[in-house]
Write a structure and sequence with these properties.
120 residues, 81% helix
Length: 120
């Protein structure tokens, strides 16, 4: 398992998860905390990447998955391979860092949308 690739895949998945969560009406003031709490709890209560993703998704009350979220789930699973416990340990060990990277990704995506809107 290449930890840098896994971190990047995790951040992409969390960003897609956040987008779906907000689209479903999540509280914009509390959503970061909710995602953080669910991802940590899932790391303690699951044994595989698919279980982790499902647990986080259910914990946030998300029923379905968009094509983007599904693709990110697959990408994370491929990046982790069979190193499920290593991934769960990484999430537990670096949860704050993963959330910080996800927030940066969300901010960059917002700035990019704003740049595109001003150039249209």
């Amino acid at each position: 398992m290449n930890e840098d690739q896994v971190r990047q895949a995790t951040v992409r998945l969390l960003h897609a998860l956040r987008n779906e969560f907000l689209r479903d009406g999540a509280n914009s003031l509390k959503h970061w905390e909710q995602i953080h709490d669910r991802m940590r709890a899932a790391a303690r209560m699951t044994t595989t990447v698919p279980e982790w993703v499902t647990h986080v998704q259910r914990g946030l009350g998300l029923a379905g998955a968009s094509a983007a979220f599904s693709a990110r789930t697959r990408d994370l699973s491929v990046a982790v391979g069979t190193a499920h416990q290593e991934f769960l340990d990484l999430v537990e060990r670096e949860h704050g860092y993963l959330m910080a990277l996800t927030r940066l990704a969300a901010d960059e995506a917002r700035r990019e949308r704003q740049r595109e809107a001003t150039h249209d």
